[in-house]
Hints:
The complex is a heterodimer.
Chain A: H1 14-32, E1 37-43, E2 48-53, H2 56-86, H3 98-113, H4 117-135, H5 142-173, H6 178-184, H7 189-205, H8 214-217, H9 223-231, H10 235-244, H11 246-249, H12 253-276, H13 280-301, H14 303-335, H15 351-364, H16 371-386, H17 388-413, H18 426-444, H19 447-461, H20 477-494, H21 497-513, H22 515-539, H23 541-562, H24 578-597, H25 601-621, H26 625-648, H27 662-688, H28 696-702, H29 711-719, H30 721-742
Antiparallel strand pairs in A: 1-2
Helix pairs in contact in A: 1-2, 1-3, 2-3, 2-9, 2-14, 2-18, 2-19, 3-4, 4-5, 5-7, 7-10, 7-12, 9-14, 10-13, 12-13, 12-17, 12-21, 13-14, 13-17, 14-15, 14-16, 14-18, 14-19, 15-17, 15-18, 16-17, 16-18, 16-20, 17-20, 21-22, 23-27, 24-25, 25-26, 29-30
Chain B: H1 2-20, H2 25-45, H3 66-97, H4 102-128, H5 131-135
Amino acid sequence: MAVDRGGTRPTADRPGWSACVIAVAGFALCLFAGGAGFSLPWAPSLDLRLAFALDGLAVLYGLLATGVGALVFAYGTRYLTLHLEHQRRPAVERWRFWPWMTLFAVSMVGLATAQDLVLVFVFFDLTAVCSYFLIGFDRAEREARRSALMALLVTVVAAVAMLVAAVLLHAEHGTFAIPELLDRAEPSTTTTLAAALLAVAALAKSAQVPLHFWLPKAMAAPTPVSAYLHSAAMVAAGVLVLGRVHPLLARSEAVLTGLVVVGAASVVVGGVLALRRDVLKQVLAYSTISQYGYMVMLYGIGGAAANGAAAFYVLAHGIAKSALFMTAGAVTMATGEDRLSRLGGLGRRVPVLAVAAGAASATLAALPLTVGFFKDELLFAAAVERGPVTVVLAVVAATLTFAYIGRFWIGLFLGPARGSVGAASTLLVAPVVVLAAVAVLGGVVVEPFARLAEDAATVSAGEPVTMSPGYHLDARPENLMAVAAWALGGLLLVLPRLTDGLSRAFAAAGERFGPRRAYDGTLRALDRVSAAVHDREVRDLRGSIAAVLVPAGLLIGVAFVATPTAGAYMVGIVEGADWVILPLLALVVVATVVTARARVRLVVALALAVVGFALAALYALVGAPDVALVAVVVETMLTLVFVAALSRLPREDPDRFVPGDPVRRRRDVFAALLAGLAAFVALWGFLSQPAADSVSDEHLRLTPSAHGGDVVTVIVADFRGLDTLVEITVLLVAVVGVATLVRRGRLW
Amino acid sequence: MILAFAVAAAVLFGSGAYLLLKQDLIRMVAGIILISQSGVVTIIAASLSRGRAAIDVAPGERVSDPLPQALALTALVIGLATVALLLALVHRAIVVFRTAEQDELAATEAEHEAGLERRRQADREEIESDPDGERAP
């Protein structure tokens, strides 16, 4: 076997721990700097500001992103090392992982704190770019690459809707600042349209039906990425945006109803599909779709109670889901298996992990003594307030959650022992334990969590929100709904056949008619179009040149027909040196025609030289000695190079000259005539209408202070010195290119 | 004079376009040279004033507009660089493919692409016949 490149012991994951430290620092900042903010001008002419504020909503998501982030990163230092070892990849590949992970966390905090709609858009897309590189981290695998592209395309294309909404709102209200927009927006068609567009972008990001298909695919990412992406970043970003602009969404009843519908559909589709998945991370991925469906539904219900419930839900779900993902990763690392059917009875062998994962599962299933209980209590309360339909939906949602997460935990940790267990690393279990402890702590002392959610909901509801979650031992509707959900969920757990058929039918229908097919079809069609265009472009250079010349000529023609041109053209006067210039121009024209019609290449080269030198003489006559000198030098060089190139080519056989296809020839002449004619009308018009005044006067005035006599030289070397520098660079690049080509690919 | 300059520049441009459409790569290079000459002539013709060269100018003296001249200088030099690079490329192409005809070059390229596509297809079939190799985590 090859020598281990990392030495006998893998070196410490320094970039990973640095990312972890950054996340901890961010956590402290979000914890203690609440209420801080700043606003700097960014592009004043476009009304853009770098406006950030750490308000309630920002604190909630910031704490989630950095807190969960710190734990996931710590977990990742160990996980990534093992992952790279398994894949026999060098340890330096960490550097392709951690910078993106850190940027992911930073952009999430940026998104949470941004108070400018365009800034929100920028961070929104930044998270998508990070997720692209992280999902595609195992770049040798085709599936990973495809999944990364899918996640990027679905979320980024949908995000364009957000930009459109921002522009719409700016046109209406003259600002991109979110607080002012929320103030100024009145119920109107524009508001509704903008709100709907914002919702589309957010829903695609939160993997809601029908744009949910990218999320299960994103499981191709290493586990720390999944854990982070599902709980605190990327998917959470969508819901965060919904919360940020919620007062705007609430201006339109239609948009709110749409949110309820989409959320409910996602709850059911995600929940039912999660019931029968075999791959661990797939169960959790479909669960995420379903869970974010809850939050979208809550935002759709609207009002103080629902906003509070949504904020609380984000928090509880983030804690539970990241713990569950890390559990799945730890199990797979210890056993080498990633399917429920090949695992079981791990409870006795990894008891600590089993207990911690149990607490996390209980949080998701909303059992008492976990923070999750309150998330469902608040959900039920909001549902009762809205009406019977949402009550049923909420109970169905909670039932499904109880069933699939119960199946997940029982399948992993109970039952007959299956799969061989290696050593589970402490660092892979500790973060799960910490999160589970937080979840249980929240189940006992819910106050701090409720305060966070209250502050966040105050921002998204646009009014003060107070919540008082707690345990009540009475027959209030929330408790009855919770009991009903547990009972039904338990029933599904005991009798899995009840839902087997349904889940399978859902999966089959999804494969058959699902939006993923539309995505694949669109991508394939675009690919074909691109290939066809590319084919035409490269196969026939003449065709592509004519395709530029002819439409350009026609367009110029149309422009001239549409523009009044009477009296716009001037013939000009002929005086003094012009009598010498005119014959020179005639010589240029003759030599040009000779160039075009020459049969022998050498004649082409010589005729070109005649054109060039005649023009050089012309420049001398119009009072441009610098240009004339340079033109002489350039022409001399060019003629020499041209003749040299000709002499090094295989000899041209004059008898081989064939006039070619006459139709083609006529077409060429037509295209050229059209191009020449268009150039003529355009240039004549341009020269007939000189500008009113020139900056040249300024140049003439300033030349003595630049310590020069020749104004042209001073312009080139001083006033436009940077241009000249770039020009020299171009020359240098060209020289390197020529040298390399002449020496057949070797520069030295 | 305006008309005369416009005619000359247009003839340069039209002839350049005609040469660009030719089969022969060398003539395409000639076409590019003519088109850039057309550009330089236009820039010079767009001078707002004509007179003596703008060197050691006394106040109030009538001189040639220096700004278009500076632009023309840039255009000339950049033109030289690109044409030299283009010529080197064309030279290399002709030596390697033993032809300066675009049709023949395109045919060679198409053949090469087809060969690549065949190999890609073979790769794909190999992967697909081994699904375990692809789906393994």
